[in-house]
């Protein structure tokens, strides 16, 4: 999945229901995390739904590697978008990347609101912080 | 019935369109909507009457003080207690903190505090803190299939004779109405102080506290048509006045020197600083509004809506409803198959339906129910059959999208 | 100057007639009046947007949460601090209680808390309570002729190296602006934590907290054009986050079981329960309003009014004015011969003049000034020269009646 | 001073200033309490101004006897009115007497407001409570 493809798909979906259907389909394409990796230490705190997130650096390519899963379908779909946006970026590129603009353009900015029920913002913040450290 | 239906027009937000859809507000257990009367009183206060209360000699201040103190009379007579038995706070949470702090002053490691398994975090954590400070232990009453086990609870109370029983009149997560009458009368017999969390009962059940005979009762204005940032507590006067103060500052004192200070009598001593004046006045307007509605007609109407909702919901295959559906103020707390409540609530919202999802600040209860959360639709008298239809249609469409 | 004068029109109450007289509101130190912008924001919230915040997935709740959290950004950038360094409370009194409770967790009988002699009871009594709990002692800085003795205070601080200095930026009883910059820098050098009571300074002085470099700062919205029942505190993040929690309940927790609970990080952990949502949003509107005014023009204007008032007052034989008339936000605190402040204020009120009389919640200060109280006229930028004339005429007439 | 006289005087005073002038004159006619009696135990609590109040029963006449003073002129004048209203009443009559109606008819009801700064209400409550005990 690449981000251009996702952007196109979502912009073709009219109405919220269609959008969420598309998002849930994206989630389905995201490989499930093996249960052994669904450990509390990998949980992103501040999410009402459970989100497990792993982020590492491919030393050779100097690119971010992200794997993640969630117990909810919609958040899993949003994770697919986030992973597509950040994957294969260098830490430098990642820390300069503006997820708010992306979500704004996808019409999904409400998911980045500071509401505590809404963990997507916490996920993005955690990725940004880790990318910063990997620079 | 038409009478009550027409009250809906007093709530301007209910005519709102969200993304081109009419709003279907089923989140009154989180916060109730406000009638025009309340909104107008607040606006008029700031436009024409704003002043600090107490100690001011000028007309604005006198008038604001009269309004503020007569609001205390309004809520006191609503609850059938004495005016001086009402303390204003910033909400039920602060009221419970004040009580847990005050009552725990004479706890020790032999003390026992009983709570129900349905409690909101606001009626758990302050008592846990008190236990930690004093060595007291927390005793949790038993439940069966999402309903308080009344006989088991009574037996446990009689066995442990706790210092305090702190429990909700109505469960916010499930809507269960608890048999507090019988529990309070057991507590009287064994010398247990009763603290009733009325956050969810004030609006729907309009309790007569003299008849209930509890020692303390707490409430939040915003759950009962009033503004945010204000609530209060009732306490039998002797017991109330005997509590140590929780917050200190201006107005609550009799005399201050750098060496020491002495405090006023209750309720004054629990109200330091500038209170939420517009909040208190707005809350009195909300109580005035509720007083104009016939309570039994209101309850009948809410029950009719509730059972209509419950019936329709149960017809959907795969729905599990939690809690007590016999004694309920009008809350359905449910899940659909193994779908996540987050997905359900998010999709319902795309149809203009405002429900809550998650643990509803009752994590221990959710653990006992073996779920990580539920979707909660909560009713108030300003809802109608259209809301129920709107909700059921949206839920069916949501399920279609998920299946 | 005309610019600022025209702002008066934004405050609807100032056009009010009381008993057929125009209102002359000189009680802004007790509570400030509210501009239409603030009143409208509150009304619109309840009419169109009302919802509980946090954890809600539906649109109303999301929107309310965004408003609530962006209000935190608004006040943070106004004070030039980080957003997460702002905690919402019910007002300055609660903020000071939270700090006295939290900071005293590591006090012992060797600990010393320094306060100034000008403090409001809200910045005395919570520290006295902390002293009583922990055995710490209260140290009062010296004053000379109603003005803080800066050199004496610095010497005392250096001698005792207190754990905490808690003092007002501006005295509510007298209007004195205290030299907190120099005291804070002394405190830095000796390791003393600084708690600044900004209740009277936020509106008039618009402090830059990064520049001031205090550790904590508290404020009330209602003294700064905002609604009642809301205020807050600033704390340097590490120190803030290290404080134990004061109130507990919903929203502030990470996880609750019947066995134990864990808390969120600051500021969340200090905000249990449903906050004063309309209050916070209304306060942000007040800050937005203040931000549109040029601060130096505002201060010039307030100073011009103050000096005009002071000059006219001093021309009346028998008037004693207390406090620092060089560094003052615009408060005259006075007596006339041996007349009682109660009589003066009551008679002034018959001319539509709203002033405060009494001890202004500063009984220890009054004792040091050797008076049982004063009449206090306090200005804000929405006052004008007509108010001053109105007040002076009323005062002359009052004196005639008494003499 | 009797209460009819006072009522007449006050009703003839037009405007607040005239009313307060009359009230202060009434206060001047009230004998000052000897300093020896101005003790803290006689203070009415809840007043911003100082009010010393003594109330006793004339056993022979079975009538209330009141003496009082204040450090403010207006409160002293209001005390004169209150004393005129209650003096020579039996405890029975006093406990049935409605000071709110009197102050309402005199246009002074604001002085009986629950504002803490305003001690008149506390004075009336104290007299009523003592009269109740003397019944
Ligand atoms: C200097 C000062 N500190 C604290 C307070 C207490 O503020 P609040 O009553 O809003 O809690 C006041 C209010 O009078 C004040 O003037
Ligand atoms: C049963 C119950 N108790 C206490 C509270 C806390 O009330 P507040 O958040 O208004 O302080 C709530 C609110 O959700 C509640 O439902």
Please describe the structure with a list of short key phrases separated by commas or semicolons.
heterotetramer, A: 135 residues, mainly alpha, two-stranded antiparallel ribbon, 2 strands, 12% strand, globular, B: 403 residues, alpha/beta, 7-stranded mixed sheet, 4-stranded antiparallel sheet, 15 helices, 19 strands, 41% helix, binds pyridoxal-5'-phosphate
The greatest inter-chain interface is formed by: B-C, 88 and 88 residues
Low-confidence stretches of chain B: none
Number of strand elements of chain B: 19
State the separation between the terminal residues of chain A, measured CA to CA: 25 Å
Fraction of residues in helix of chain B: 40-55%
Word description of this protein:
- The complex is a heterotetramer, with 2 copies of chain A (135 residues) and 2 copies of chain B (403 residues).
- The two termini of chain A are 25 Å apart.
- In chain A, helix 1 packs antiparallel against helix 2 and helix 2 packs across helix 3 (73-86).
- Chain A has 6 helices and 2 strands, in the order H-H-E-E-H-H-H-H.
- Chain A is mainly alpha-helical and 135 residues long.
- The mean pLDDT of chain A is 88.
- Chain B is of the alpha/beta class and 403 residues long.
- Chain B has 15 helices and 19 strands.
- Chain B has a 7-stranded mixed sheet, sandwiched between helices.
- The radius of gyration of chain B is 22 Å and the shape is globular.
- The interface between B and C is large, with 88 and 88 residues.
- One pyridoxal-5'-phosphate sits between chains C (91-93, 120, 122-123, 168, 172, 197, 199-200, 220, 222, 231, 361) and B (250, 273-274).
């Amino acid at each position: 999945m690449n981000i251009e493809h996702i952007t196109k798909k979502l912009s073709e979906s009219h109405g919220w229901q269609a959008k969420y259907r598309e998002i849930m389909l994206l989630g389905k394409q995201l490989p499930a995390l093996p249960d052994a990796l669904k450990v509390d230490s990998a949980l992103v705190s501040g999410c009402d739904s459970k989100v497990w997130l792993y982020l590492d650096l491919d030393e050779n390519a100097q690119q971010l590697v992200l794997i993640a899963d969630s117990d909810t379908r919609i958040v899993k779909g949003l994770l697919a978008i986030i992973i597509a946006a950040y994957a294969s970026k260098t830490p430098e590129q990642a820390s300069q990347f503006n997820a708010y603009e992306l979500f704004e353009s996808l019409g999904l900015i409400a998911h980045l609101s500071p509401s505590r029920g809404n963990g997507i913002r916490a996920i993005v913040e955690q990725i940004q912080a880790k990318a910063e450290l990997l620079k | 019935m038409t009478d009550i239906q027409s009250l809906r027009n007093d709530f301007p937000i209910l005519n709102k369109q969200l993304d081109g859809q009419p709003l279907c507000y089923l989140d009154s257990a989180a916060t109730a909507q406000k009638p025009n009367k309340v909104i107008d009183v607040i606006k008029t206060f700031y436009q024409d009457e704003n002043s600090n209360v107490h100690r001011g000699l000028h007309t604005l201040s006198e008038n604001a003080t009269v309004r503020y103190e007569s609001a205390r009379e309004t809520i006191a007579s609503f609850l059938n207690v004495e005016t001086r038995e009402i303390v204003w706070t910033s909400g039920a949470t602060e009221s419970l903190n004040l009580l847990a702090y005050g009552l725990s002053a004479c706890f020790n490691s032999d003390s026992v505090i009983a709570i129900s398994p349905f409690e909101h975090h606001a009626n758990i954590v302050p008592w846990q803190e008190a236990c930690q400070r004093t060595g007291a232990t927390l005793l949790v009453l038993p439940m069966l299939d999402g309903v308080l086990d009344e006989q088991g609870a009574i037996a446990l109370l009689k066995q442990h004779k706790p210092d305090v029983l702190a429990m909700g009149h109505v469960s916010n997560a499930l809507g269960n109405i608890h048999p507090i009458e019988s529990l309070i009368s057991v507590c009287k017999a064994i010398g247990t102080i009763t603290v009733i969390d009325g956050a969810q009962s004030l609006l729907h059940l309009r309790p007569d506290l003299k008849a209930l005979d509890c020692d303390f009762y707490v409430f939040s204005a915003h759950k009962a048509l009033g503004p945010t940032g204000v609530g209060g507590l009732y306490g039998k006067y002797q017991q109330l006045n005997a509590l140590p103060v929780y917050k200190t500052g201006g107005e609550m004192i009799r005399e201050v020197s750098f060496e020491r200070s002495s405090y006023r009598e209750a309720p004054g001593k629990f109200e330091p600083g500038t209170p939420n004046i517009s909040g208190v006045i707005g809350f009195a307007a909300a109580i005035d509004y509720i007083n104009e509605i016939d309570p039994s007609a209101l309850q009948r109407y809410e029950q009719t809506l509730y059972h209509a909702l419950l019936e329709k919901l149960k017809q959907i295959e795969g729905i599990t409803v939690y809690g007590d559906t016999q004694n309920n103020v009008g809350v359905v707390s449910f899940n659909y198959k193994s779908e996540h409540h987050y997905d359900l609530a998010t999709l319902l919202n795309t149809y203009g339906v405002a429900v809550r999802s998650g643990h509803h600040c009752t994590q221990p209860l959710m653990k006992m129910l073996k779920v990580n959360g539920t979707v909660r639709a909560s009713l108030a008298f300003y809802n109608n059959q259209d809301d129920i239809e709107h909700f059921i249609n949206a839920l069916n469409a949501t399920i279609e999208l998920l299946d």
